[in-house]
Each structure stands twice: as C-alpha cells, then as structure tokens.
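Co-fold these.
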Amino acid sequence: MSDTRPYKITGKTGSWEIVIGLEVHAQVSSKLKLFSNGAASFGSNENENLDLLDIGLPGTLPTINSFVIDQAIKSGLALNAKVNNFSIFDRKNYFYPDLPLGYQISQYKEPIISDGYIDIDINENDSKRIRIERLHLEQDAGKSIHDQSPEDSFIDFNRAGVALMEIVSHPDLSDWDEAGDYVTKLRNILRFANTCDGNMQEGSLRCDANVSVRKPNNALGTRCEIKNLNSIKNLMKAIEFEANRQVSLLESGETIAQETRLFDANSGKTRTMRSKEEAHDYRYFPDPDLLPLKIEEDRIHQISKTLPELPAQLKERLKSQYNLGSYDARVISAELETAKYFEDLSEGRDPKQAANWIISNLFGKLNEIDKSISESPISSKKLGKLLDLVNDGTISNKIAKEVFEEMFMSSKEAKEIIEEKGLKQISNEDDIEKLVDKIILENETQVNQFKEGNTKVMGWFVGQVMKLTKGQANPGIVNKIILKKLNN
Amino acid sequence: MNELLKLSLVETVKLIKSKKVSAKEIIETYINRLEDTEKYNMLSEKNYDEALELANKIDSKKPEDFRPLEGIPIAVKDIFCTVGNKTTASSKILNNFFAPYESTVTKNLKNAGAIVICKTNMDEFAMGSASDTCIKGEVINPWTDDFSKPLTPGGSSGGSAAVVAISGACFSLGTDTGGSIRQPASFCGNVGLKPTYGRCSRYGIIAFASSLDQAGPISKTVEDAAYALTYMASWDKNDSTSVNIKMPDLLKNIKEGIKGLKVGVPKEYIIDGMSDEIQKLLENGRTWLKDQGAEVIDISLPHTKVALPCYYIIAPAEASANLARYDGVKFGYRAEGPFKDLNDMYCKTRGEGFGKEVKRRLLIGTYVLSSGYYDAYYIHAQKVRRKIAEDFNSAFKDVDVILSPTAPSDAFVLGEKKEDPINMYLNDVFTVPSSLAGLPAISIPAGLSKNNKPLGLQLISNKFTEDTLLKTAFALEEAASFTHRPNLEK
Amino acid sequence: MLIDKKVTKKIAFLARIGLTEKEAEDFSKDLSNILKWMEDLKKIDVKNVDPLRNINDIELLEREDIDFSKNSDQRKLLANAPKKNGNFFTVPKVIE
Ligand SMILES: [Mg+2]
Ligand SMILES: [Zn+2]
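Predicted complex below.
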C-alpha cells in the first residue's frame, strides 16, 4: 500500500515531497448544543437559538449533551478508532467577539477518540492508509459579520456552543488530490454514520490544512497552517498554491516562516493571517465546571450495534449482491444518495443497466448543471419507468437517451414525452416487412451486392428502414426481417 | 432594639406561623432596621417594595399552607443572580447588569417562602478579605467603635455578615471560596457555614473559582444555619459539580451532644506569631469540647503551610478564565470609544472595569497558566492540592471533627492591609485548607479579643457530614455562650 | 525581581487588561513578591501524585438531546448589551 504516485512538484532543483495533515471540524448532528439547551439547527434568525450559556451570562454552567457523546463514539467506531474510557474537557482561552465565554470548551490532552484511520483509493487496486490521530468534542463559536456597517462588526451567537468534532489526521497526505480524497471519504463516512450532515456550504464541515514541503528523505520542513477551507475544491487549490509557494521560496534561498494563513478563493492564493510570534497562548486547563467523561465498554458496544453500513461495506455488498464491477461499485458507494438512488433504480431491473445509466448518463447531465444527485430533476422512480420502456421494447436505447434529455429539461414523465413526440418504437412485423419489401424492390443494385456475398450492405438496408421510421423501428426486428427477405 | 430583631431564624419561623405577628410587621421591622443602619454601607440593592408586597400575600394565606421559610427576610450577597434586581458582584464591569434568570440557591429559598429584602456589598468578584474593594465603597463592621478608624467586616461576604450582625435579616447568603463566609462571620460575631463542595448548586452564582466556590448561610445561631442550609441545598442538574448525595437531617440530632466524639486539633494551625488571644481562644475551644464529653486529640495536617500559595495559584487561574467573559460585548461595562482596534476595546474595558485586586489576581492566574509556567505552577499546585486533601482524609480516619481558630486575628482597621496583598491573603490561612479539600466547615463566635471584638472558632468535618459538623458546632456554641452584640449607638 | 514590567505587560495583554505605566510597575512588584512567596510550594515532593481536578469523585451527568429547545427570550438576552444593532451585538470592526 505504498504511495506509487510521482511527486507532484518538480522545481528547478528537482522533486519535492509535500507533507499534509488535516484538521476537519465536523458539526455533530443533534437537536441541542453541546453544553446548553439552545437549538443546534442552522438557518434561524440571528441570536435566536440561544440558551443563557450561549452568550456566557454570569453564573451559567455547562451540562453535557448525552446524544452528542453517542455521536462522537459512533463516528470514532466508523473511523476504526479507539473510544477512550476516560476523557477530559479543557478550557482553551482566547479573546474573540464571537467566543462568548472567553474560552472554548474543548478537549486537549485526553480526547474522547484516538487512533483511527481511513483508507483512500490511489488507483483501481491500490489504497493508502491515512492515520487519524484523534477526534475530540468542542464548542463552535458564533459568527462575526463584517459587511453590514462601516464601523462595526455584528455578532450572531446562534452557532456558539454547537457541538463540533475536530478530527485530526497524521501528516500522512502527500498531495492535494489525496487531501481531497481523504476529506471526501471522511465526509461520506460521517454522513453514512449519520453523525454529521457534511454540508460544506453551510459550514457543517470545515478544514484546516497543515502544509510543508521537503526534499525526499530530508527532515520535515517548516509548516504553515491554512485556516477555514470551506469546500474540497478550495482545500485542494489552497494546498496546491501553498506547496508551490513554499517550494519557490526555498528554491530561491529563502526560508519558510511558521504561520497561520488564509486562502482567498478569488485570487486562489494564501496570505499571512498571523505569525508564530503573534500566536496565541491558549492556556489550556481542565474545565472545573465539568467532570471527566467516563465511557463504559457496554455503551460502546451498544452503539456499535447501531452503526449503519459504511461506504467500504456498501462497496463490497454492491459487488456481491449486484455483481457490479469495482469501478461501478466505487462510484455508486461514494455518496449515500447515489447508493440509495442505485438501489431504488435496480429494484426489479438489471443492476448493471441501472449503474450504467447513473454513471454515464445521469452524472454527465448533473455535472453540466453543477447539481448533486439529491437535486436531480429525474428521480430514481422516473428513470426506472424509462428503463422499463426500453426493456419492454417500447423504445430503443437510442431513443431512450433522447427522452432522457427531454425529461431532464421538462420534468415530464418518459411516457408523456414518447407519446407527445410519437417516439414509440415500431415493432409490428407486418409494418416493417412492408417497408423492407419496398426498399428491396426499389434498390436492385444493393440486393445484388448482398447476393454476391457483400454482407456489409446489410447495414445500408437497416439504415434505410431507420431513415423511413425516424429511428423508431425496433432494430432487432428490422435486422431479422431484412435477413429473411434477402436470403429468400 | 425591637424584640422581633432579637429572635433567631427558627424562633421567627415559629412566630410567623403562629400568626401572632404578621409577615408584614416582620418585614417592616427589618426594613426599618436596615434604614437605621445605612452608615455601615452594607447594601448594594434594596428590595423593600417587593418584600412588602410578598409579605402582604403571605398574610392572606392560612398557616397550614405556610412553607418552611414563609415570610423570612433574607439578605443575599450580590453575587447570586436574582430576577428583578441588579446583580453586580460589586464590580464596575457589571454595574448595570440585570440577570434574566434566578440562581438555584435563591430560587430554592424563595420557593421555601423566604423574602429577599436586600442584596449586599462584597469584595469585587468575591476577591478579598476585607470588603474594601466594592464598587459602592467599603463595608463597615458594625462592631466599629471609632468611626475615624472603621473596622473591616471581613470579606468577601462582608455585607452579608454585617447585615446579620445588626439584625437586618434573619439570615444572609454568602459564598465561600477560600474563607469568604467563615472569616467575615468571625469578624462580625456570627455563625458562618460553608457546606461540602457540591451541596449547594453554583448555578446562577457569579463564578470566582469554580472548583472552590460554595454558597452558605451566615446566621445568628448554629441551629439557624442548619435550618437555612436545609432549604438552600439541592442536587441541581444545571450544575455538573453538584452532588446527588442526600443531605442528612441537619436538625434532628443537632442537640444530642457530642459524647465520645473525637475532635482533632492540628498542630500546624498553631502558626508563628499567632497572638496570645487566638491561642487562648483555641485552648478554650478544646476545654469546652472536652467538657461536653468529646475526646480532643492532637493531629497533624502536614501540608497546611503550603495551602495558601496553592490556593493563590488555583483560584486565580480559574478566575482568569471565568472572568474572560467580561469583555464589553454581551453585557456589562464597555469603555468609551473610539478604539484603535478590538484589542484596544478589550484592554480599555477590562482595564477600567476591574478593580486593582481583581486585576492582580487575573494577572497571577494568567501567568500561572501561560506557556512555560503551567506545569511548574498550575499542575504542581493541583498535585499539592491532592496532598492537602489526603492530609484531611487520613486525619478523618482518627477524628470526626477538626477544631481551629477561624482567622488569625480579630477585625482589623479598614485599609490597613490594602497595599500589602500577601498580608491580606494570610487572613485565610485557617480557612483555605478545608476549601481546597472541599470539606464542610463552620465558624462559631467564641469570644472577644482584647479590643472587645468577636473571635470565631472553626470546625471542619468530613465531606457530606454536615450533621456531625453542626452537632459539634451546637455543642461548642452552647459552651461558648457568646451573647455579645455590637453597640450601634455610636 | 522575578517579573519585570515587560513581562507584566505581556501577561496583561494575554488577559486583555489595559495597564497604566504606574500599574505595570506596581503589579510587577506585587507579582514578584507573590511568586516569591509561592516558592515554598515547589519544595513539596509530588512525584507520582495525580493532579487533583475535581474534589468529588462523581459521574458526569448527561443531559438528554430532546426535541425542544430552551431558546431564551431574545429581548432579555440582548437587554444587557452595551452596544447592539437590531438583534445583533456589535463591536468595533474586526479586520482579519
Ligand atoms: Mg485545532
Ligand atoms: Zn477546533
């Protein structure tokens, strides 16, 4: 399982190795916040989802949400990690307007989960293990809004106190593609486990990337941390830019300053946010308002029994239950919605046909309009009806593709479109025979060519029938009748 | 003095229930008393209108519907969030803060029928031993003879102790982090009880040091303290550190005597330079308890000497985080702009909003947690704290209760130690070790100093044995029979 | 002196407490004295001693994630704000 990819950056002085570690913040799916009874839901009006603790009112105290602990345990199990029987909540001290308590309750030295991994696919047959150092629980901060007034920043504490899982990888990632694959896979695992909705636009999943470069086999270089990457695309772009920036600095004889950087999606560049000298001194210490979190083996066992099928298991099942090849199984299992769509579509139909339609037709169209499968204008049920019309001979595969395009635009049912446009396949043998007779009669030259042994001319006859029927004739029947007539 | 004001809490409860006196008359009498004693600067808020309104409601009720504290006027340290009044912790930074919710302890007491008659001044954020850091000025000990040299009531619950000393409430609420109930009780001639850590919910109490803060009553008698604590304490799901261990019946056996009880006197509590009168007081305590049938033995708590420095690492460290929320954003004071930037706003707001002692402790706390010092100070102190707790654990294998003085002196002159923090911190030398160990402790007025000022004796018992503690305190109180009251006609 | 003015100012900035020059000087003295006074503590042998985090060895009580939220009255939560705009708390512009 070694990395077989070539080095991504070759500079003036040769190849460079990139070393990347990721910190992913995943919002826990729960009704209430981590330590308060404020609603954890997204999209409410500003400063509406607040319990007293969420603005840090004097005298308020944190109490822990039991379900959030279960969710962290579940995520840990899904990431092949160890659930720690003993963990501690610490205070991470810093001042920022959207941090209501003046500290974030987080886990520092003793996290709830440690030592997991994700295997990412490098190619058809090879995968690479990315080790996960830890997953810990912590509070989210509120939101500062800077564009509402020239003098002031506005603070909304709705998010403050929502439970996050911070998932920290080892620096096992070697390029931006791997980083993208890792986050995609991590996101899917959490979504399958139902512990995080993975919605990156809404900020349910955010990444920080630690990036450094070195000459192969040299000691680790100085790293920079890029904060708050809110899409996989940006994550990959940011890493690519940052690694190249570091390489060109080093190659021109300069040094890398350890610092925190921000990625500007418009320019595609990273820039300094704060240097090591300005780095925070977080003064972590155990939160005296809380007690150690002790988790019994039995609780872990109970939760492990509720763990749903995960992407890797699903992939294997798709291979064995539906006979899909590795490529199809991988694509179909990559997203929860795709798998669901596939399983609905293949119910009572040929799975291979279902997979083909999804991968080659549906994904292509969805890509054009930049939509996900859950937003597809054609539901699995509708597509199923279209396939049924192919399978019972009402339309040909070719016509089906036309109908599909139309369905995508109009949201009409396949049947409707076929009727409206008169696309129904002509399968009536008498009708086709009449047409064939007519063509044979009018094209003596071609008939003679056939009789002289030029069987290629068959295709010409089929083409003539299709021309006359606007492609609606059943190609199987057409072939059969032409052969019969010509051999007579 | 009005006869009503001479009654204890327990006697007043009975009197109200008998309907011989109306709740309104009780409340009015107490209000008058508070109005007559304004010179001691005890109050941060008066709640007279609401108190009278509540009293009127009570008077229309049948005595069989009376709750255990029906109509009882209480004074509340201004560190408990109470709805309808300001809650300021005596700090400029919270000068205009109205809590939108009620602390669990005051809620419990209100539910039991108690009436909050006033809120009391205290050291800013409970950081002090003299009640000389309040935004409303110093509280003056009612035992003061010479107003040109006013005495401290002790701190930080100085206002609450002073109110009970002048009979301005049937009992009052204090909080004790390192001695802030017991030391002022000692200086004002009251009973001051700090329960086991976790007995009273901290929910709604403005935090100083979370692992140490405990609420408790200040009262005239030991029995009153037992009665008050019974209705203050509760297991509260809003406070993860509150304990779900049933409180023993504190009143049932309180008078049964202490025959055969073992009392330990730690040799480390006889400190260098301790005055003769404090030594004498402790001797008296020994004799009294022996006379009541207890066995008094010498014990050792070897880590006593380092308890104070240990406390002055842990408490400020916790405070430095607890007080970070006062940043001028969500509530409280914000300095006048314009500001260079956000940090300028923070620094000005907190620089102007906090008083000197609070700043001093926030600086200590920040320092001991900062990178490079955390292990040497904070972690080390937490380890020493365990050693201190273990000292007590082994002592309680041999004894039921520990006896010591409450404070190393009587009430001193206000301002005397203000510029000498370490000297001020030494006030808590006898109270801090039990705070660090989370133990219940009580101060009982036990004698007068040569200046005719009250002196208290402290009893400490094992965790969750408030019944044993109060039984012993009751016996000690009987023997000491301290009946002096301050002369307010000066 | 253990703590000079420079260190005091650094600590004060960490704690976001603005100090005058005089205060910085006074606190340097105070902190130095206090830290010196704490030196005794370091003499205590704490080898193999676990730091004491919580004085009572009790279980962390867990709260249910039930389908209601105790969102508090927004007006009450904003009532104490030193500065606000509509339902937002406001602070001097943050530039990052
Ligand atoms: Mg992090
Ligand atoms: Zn984090």
